[in-house]
Amino acid sequence: MRLVIDTSQVTFTVGREAQPKTDQNGIQRVERSTNVPMWTVQLVAMDGSGAEVISVTVAAPQAPKVTTGTVVTPVELQAIPWAQNGRNGVAFRAVDIKAVSGSKTSANSAS
User: Fold this and answer.
1) pTM confidence score
2) CATH assignment, 1-97
3) Per-residue pLDDT, 106
4) CA dihedral for 95, 96, 101, 105, sign (positive or negative)
């Protein structure tokens, strides 16, 4: 089951830029149905109750063009519960991750 998340009350900041999503052999994973490369972007999600670091997977021909410290919007962010070998968790996936206009932190834009 894929659950679309309401992000209207959450601010997302890039914690680490896009990296290829790789398998245990270091080979970049691709989306099964389209053969499009997959990327992982670390985001800091902040709302009224605090912050959490999440890794969001995006399938795209090129890595999302976002830099560390940039405020972004994950497009159609989904939570995907998983369970395997007695372990479980939630994976996050988005169609795209877009920078919010004028969002670069003031310290970075002054340099």
Assistant:
1) 0.85
2) 2.40.50
3) 39
4) positive
